[in-house]
Amino acid sequence: MIDKQQVKLHFSKNASNYNQYTHVQKNMRDILIDFMLQSNKDNLKIKNILEIGCGTGYLTTALVDLFPLAHITAVDIAPGMIAEIKSKFKNDSIDFICGDIEEIDINTTYDIIISNATFQWFNHMPLTLRKLYNSLNKNGILCFSTFGRYTFNELNECFEKAKQTMSIKEPIYSGQSFHSLNELHTMCKNTIRNKNSNNEILVESKELFEYEYFNDCRDFFYSIKKIGANNSNKDGRCTSPAFMRKVINLYNKNFRENNRVKATYHCLFYKMIKESVK
């Protein structure tokens, strides 16, 4: 389970640093937009958009440019992120809400619900997917990106090797767990499906891998900290300095390419279209 209070704290504290360190997330934004636009041929018909996890606004900016006539509701769990994005937009067509989308009651319907690199922080994915899908207008699109199970596989491997070397039996987690492409695709289909519904469920998905390179493992940890994506798990015991030194040494030794260490990002993209059965 994710500790949402820690998520708020970490992202708020690092809101001013976020854009400087989110190279992969920015690439994901571009891919997400292209993926979404494949199902939307007429931007002028889009009137109402919900963005989840707006952060500092780099997806919001693209939505404003693409859909100049639309009203956008931008939501983020972190007060610091909302303060940061509000300072950049002086636009009456955007409403900003500071809150957890898993807890917020949605009383409006939308033509597009979109989110970039946020769904990995959800504790109740099936319920939240159902709520969002039910908030779509006819022919509405729910489109999101998130991280998959192979994200930070280098770090996960080092945690497991360090546990074995130090004979640690208790669970220690490097971060939250992620779904595979098939797991999340199945979840999307099963949690949205309703045999009494008059709507047909269309789910499309894709995956790709992005890589970042750092001088060493400590630089990698620093980049994660500076965007606020620290380990916010409620489960698992705290790591000792000795354990983390072992992890860092293993990482620097086993995952170096061209004198830099590698970090893998497994990027998943999903799109659900709400179409009436003919």
From TrEMBL:
Q: Where is the Methyltransferase type domain?
A: 50-144
Record carries keyword S-adenosyl-L-methionine: yes
* Keywords attached to this entry: Biotin biosynthesis, Methyltransferase, S-adenosyl-L-methionine, Transferase
Q: Which GO terms describe its molecular function?
A: carboxyl-O-methyltransferase activity; malonyl-CoA methyltransferase activity; S-adenosylmethionine-dependent methyltransferase activity
Would you say which domain of life the source belongs to? Bacteria
The UniProt entry's GO biological process terms, in alphabetical order, are: biotin biosynthetic process; methylation
Query: Which protein, by its recorded name, is this?
Result: Malonyl-[acyl-carrier protein] O-methyltransferase
Which species does the entry assign this protein to?
A: Clostridium pasteurianum BC1
Question: Organism classification, top ranks?
Answer: Bacteria, Bacillati, Bacillota, Clostridia, Eubacteriales
- This protein's encoding gene: bioC
